[in-house]
Here is the input.
Amino acid sequence: MMEERARQAEDGAGFIRIENVSKSFGSFKAVDEVSLSISKGELFALLGGSGCGKTTLLRMLAGFETPDAGRIFIDGQDMAGVAPYDRPVNMMFQSYALFPHMTVEGNIGYGLKYEAMSDAERKDRVREMLELVQLTPLAGRKPHQISGGQRQRVALARALARQPKLLLLDEPLGALDKKLREHTQFELMNIQYKTGVTFVVVTHDQEEAMTLANRIAVMDKGVVRQIGSPTEIYENPKSRFVADFIGSINRFAAAIVYVKDGIAVLDCAELGQPLQARAEDGFEPGMRVTAAVRPEKITISRERPEAGNVLSAVVHDLGYFGKDSLYRLQLPTGKMISASVVNTRRAGENERIAQWDDAVFLAFDPASVILLRD
Amino acid sequence: MNRRPVFLLTVLAFGFAFFYVPILSMIIYSFNRSRLATVWGGFSLDWYGKLFHNRQIIDAALLSLEIALVSATLATILGTMAGIALARFRHFRGRTLFSGFITAPLIMPEVITGISMLMLFILMANWIGWPEKRGFMTVTIAHITFSMTYVATIVQARLSSTDHSVEEAAMDLGAKPWQVLRDVTLPIIAPAIGSGWLLALTISLDDVVISSFTTGPGSTTLPILIWSKVKLGVTPDINALASLIILIVTVAVIAAGVIMARADRKREADIQRAIKDNG
Ligand SMILES: Nc1ncnc2c1ncn2[C@@H]1O[C@H](COP(=O)(O)OP(=O)(O)OP(=O)(O)O)[C@@H](O)[C@H]1O
Ligand SMILES: [Mg+2]
Here is the structure.
C-alpha cells in the first residue's frame, strides 16, 4: 500500500503547487510566504499548533480566502479568481458543517445536485458513497439523529461524492474520542487508498500526522518549518522548533571541539563530560550547536555498558504507562534527562530495572544524537 | 421546609389569576343579556348574533386582517433580506448606519413614529400628489416599516448563532450564492422567518397608535374601532368580539401545536422505517 502510494506520488509531482502564498488579517500575518508542492494521490498533513495558520491555508486552497500574495495551482490550473463552487476541490470542515435539515442521503447527494449527470447516476454515486463509509442503514436519518463518528463519516462521504481532485480535511478526527480516532485513522487511510484522491489533512496532533500522512509540513506562526516524511521529521528535525514539537526530546547546549570520521566530539557543560555525535557535512569545529536525544534512544542499565556515550545518573522520578515507562534522571551536574523504557517483560513493581534514587548508567549511540544549528 | 413551595405556589396562583380572571370574566359577560356590562341579566347569545350583523365591526375586522396579512408578508420579505445582510455581510460601506436605521424604530416611541409617518404622507401628497387619501395603503406601509425591524432582528439573531461554515460547505459543494441561500440559508432560518411573520401579524393586528395616525376617513381598523367604542363605555358586544378573537387565537395555537407534533411523529416513523428497510 505504501509503495503503491509512493509510485502514484511520483507520477503526479507538483499536482498541487502553492507558491509564496501569504495572507494577513489586518496587520497580523496568518500565513507567511508558504511554498508547498503536493503530488497526486498523496496523503499530506499540515501539522502545527493552534493559530499557526493551518485552517487559513486550507481555506485559500478551497477558495474561501484570497491570498494577499503568491499563487496556487491545482493540476496545472491557476486558482486565482476561481470561486469555491468552481474549484475541483472539496473540503471536510472542522465542525463537519452538515446540513441540519437534510437527511444523511441528502447531505451526501447535495454536491451532485449541480453536476451534469443523470438521476440514475446520481443515485448510484450516493449509494456507492454510503457503502464506502458504511452508512447505508442510516441513509434516512437527520444529522442530529446520528453519533459523532457517524457524522464524521457523512462529512467525508459528502466531500468525496463529487470525486474532487483534492480533498481538504480540517481536523477530521478532532471531535472523536481516542479509541474511535485510532480506528478512524486507518479507515481514512483506507478510503484515501481506495479512491486515490489527493488528501491534505490539517491536524495539531503529531501522532495523528505521523500515522496518517506520507508527508508532513510542520507549521509555526504562519511559516512552514520543515517538510518531509514522518521518519525524516522525527529522526532528522532541522530546527529546535520541529525537534520540540514532534515528540519529546532532551536538549543540551554544546560546542564542537573536533570532527573525526564523521563523529563530532562536543564540549557540553550541562553533561559535565564530552559528548559524541554523528555529524553531517557542514558541522565544523568551534560551532555552537544544540545536541538532542529522544528519550527512547537512551538505555538504562545497572552495569556500565559499552557505548559511544555513557553517563551516570540517579533516578529522580518514574512513570508507568503500561507499554512503556518514563524515567526522569538527574545527572551529577543537576541536569534532568528523560529516558523511556519499553516494558518488554511482564514484571512487578519491585522487578523494574531501577527504582527511585537508584544510581544507574545511561547509554546512547552517537548516531542517535541530533545536531541542530543554533 | 414546607413553607417555600406553598409561598411560591400562592404567588404563582395570584399571577395566573391576575392574568386570566379578567379574560374569563370578559368571556362570561359576553353572554350577559343585560346591556350594562357590569350587571348580570341572564344568559344570552344575542350579542354574538348582533356582532355578525354589525357591518361596521365586520368591515373593520376584515380591513385589519387584510392590512395584517399584506404588511406581515411584505415586512417578512424585507426584514429577512435586511437580517441576512446584517448577519452575513460583515463589512460593507455604511453597515453601521444601516444597522442603526434598522433598529431605530424598535426603540422609537410609537407616537413619534406615527406622527412622522403622518407628516411624510402629508408632505408626499403635497409634492407628488400621492397618497391622495390615507387609508389601507398608508396604514399598510406604516406597519411594514415598523414590523420589518422585528423580523430583521429575529432573523439576524438566528443567523448569527448558526454556523456559517454550513453555508460555506454548500458553496464548496458547487452551489452558487443564490443556490446556497435557497437550499441552505432559508431552510435553516425558516422557523425564525415563521415567527417573524407571526410577530409582524400580531403587531399589525393590535396596533392602535400608528394606525390612528396614518389612517383616513372610511378606513377604520378593528383596534381603532374597539378603542373608540370603549371610550363610550364597555358594552357586551365588545366583550363578544374579544371573546371571539380569543377563541380564534386559542384554536390557532392548538392547531399549530398539533400539526407540529404530527410532523415530528411522522419524521420519527420515517426514520424507524428507514432503519427497518435497510437493516
Ligand atoms: N477572519 C479572520 N480575521 C482575523 N483573524 C483571523 C481570521 N481567521 C484567522 N485569523 C487569525 O489567523 C491565525 C491563524 O488562524 P487559523 O484558523 O488558520 O489557525 P489554525 O492553525 O487553523 O488553528 P487551530 O488549530 O486552532 O484551528 C489565528 O491567529 C487567527 O486568530
Ligand atoms: Mg483550524
About this structure: The mean pLDDT of chain B is 88. The CA atoms of residues 59 and 163 of chain B lie 47 Å apart. The two ends of chain B are 54 Å apart (CA to CA). The pocket of magnesium ion (ligand 2) is lined by residues A 54-55, 94, 170 (CB under 6 Å).
